[in-house]
Design goal:
alpha/beta, Rossmann fold, Alpha-Beta Plaits, 6-stranded mixed sheet, 4-stranded parallel sheet, elongated
Length: 406
């Protein structure tokens, strides 16, 4: 299986003392209500480089020999491990070369460079970067700091589990995102040693179920654009796979809408900024509420490096899906006073007009008529119904458009 022990993770915790943030584990009352369980969040988005990856990277780099340090380190990463390796290498005065997939968000590339890493963009996944990384290792003698298939990395990530159970020792379940499996493996070894009865669930994007398919002996079907690029791994770790297989109750798959909801819910309900992979545990708990109903559940918000434009888009889309932002198409006669009447009806019901699009030329309507699209800020779906009825009471014909409508 593996020779990584609980003692190894305890030793890692001693080595990390003073070199990693002991991030808080907090109750999440509003999310608990939404998910039907008592939920606790381990905020690794508050870690150095805004991700748990700073733990394993520190341990791996600090345990290099002087000769290895002189040659530098290399890795491949979609963003969080890249930033952690760049940060820890620069901190130690070591050169770092970082291969990142070409579609990596600009913000993660820039942060990696700002931490001192030399970034090379290549391919569309971590696995496509591996041949180039190996070629450079063979040519220049760099030391590989692997994102998950590394004993020191797994031990470093396992310290997250020690801290969670120290803060909340009576958890029934842990729900941990899985990319290559380093975070899950380290936490699982620690948590099971402390509480053998705890149930540990993994989470993967349904577009990248590489670990669950490998364990089940199924063909690999990974691919596509996912919000959770931090766990978009096509091939699971050789070191981590047997640990996951022996410790996971199940691996839960989440779709893109669930990930969007989770990112938005963390921001709106808890004021916590998380990237897609960082919110994957919340997405799984919410999507599988029956599994966790009434239980004390912990999860790791494992990263907060989300592009701000993407976060804004997700929050807006969540408002649309919840009915808090509605687009109404209203048919009017082209005469004075129509806009004033529409605004009066909406404000009379407590709605707020955000945008107005007034078209006479491009809709298929008679010359003396027009259609207006009004974007309205509301309190939810029931409020939208009342606003529509108020408009209809003034003899306007109204239809509500969804985000896909023209």
């Amino acid at each position: 299986m593996t020779d990584i022990t609980f003692q190894d993770i305890q030793d890692a915790a001693k080595a990390l003392d003073g070199h990693a943030v002991a991030t808080p584990t907090i109750p999440a009352p509003l999310l608990s209500e939404s998910c039907g369980c008592t939920l606790f969040l381990k905020l690794e988005n508050l870690q150095y480089t805004s991700s748990f990856k700073a733990r394993g990277a520190y341990l791996a780099i600090q345990r290099l020999s002087e000769e290895q340090r002189s040659r530098g380190v290399i890795t491949m990463s979609a963003g969080n491990h890249a930033q952690a390796v760049a940060f820890r290498a620069t901190e130690s005065g070591i050169k770092s070369r970082i291969y990142m997939p070409e579609q990596t968000p600009f913000s993660k590339i820039a942060r990696t460079q700002n931490f001192g890493g030399e970034v090379i963009l290549h391919g569309r996944s971590l696995n496509e970067c591996e041949p180039n990384v190996q070629a450079e290792i063979d040519k220049y003698g760099y030391s590989l700091v692997h994102p998950y298939d590394d004993r020191n990395v797994v031990c470093g990530q396992g310290t997250v589990g020690l801290e969670i159970l120290d803060a909340v020792p009576d958890l029934d379940c842990l729900v941990i995102p899985i990319g290559g499996g380093g975070l899950f493996s380290g936490i699982a070894i620690a948590a099971k040693a402390i509480n053998p009865n705890i149930r540990i669930y993994g989470v993967e994007s349904n577009l990248y179920p590489s670990m669950s398919q490998a364990i089940a002996g199924e063909p690999n079907s990974c691919g596509g654009e996912t919000l959770a690029e931090g766990i978009a791994v096509k091939s699971p770790g050789a070191l981590t796979r047997p640990i996951v297989e022996s410790h996971a109750e199940a691996i839960l798959l989440v779709d893109e809408l669930s990930l969007e909801w989770a990112v938005g819910a963390l921001a709106e309900q808890q004021r916590i900024i998380a990237e897609g992979a960082g919110a994957a545990g919340i997405a799984a708990i919410h999507a599988h509420r029956a599994l966790f109903k009434g239980k004390r559940v912990g999860t790791v918000i494992c990263g907060g490096n989300i592009d701000t434009r993407l976060l804004g888009s997700i929050l807006t889309r969540n408002m649309v899906s919840d009915g808090r932002l509605a687009r109404l198409r209203i048919e009017i006669s082209d005469e004075p006073g129509m806009l004033a009447s529409i605004a009066s009806a909406i404000s009379g019901e407590g709605g707020n007009v955000v945008e107005v699009y007034h078209q006479r030329l491009f809709y298929n309507v008679p010359a003396k008529l027009a259609k207006i699209d009004v974007v309205v800020d509301t309190r939810g779906a029931d409020h939208v119904v009342r606003i529509i009825k108020a408009l209809e009471s003034r003899n306007f014909r109204v239809s509500q458009l969804d985000e896909q409508s023209d």
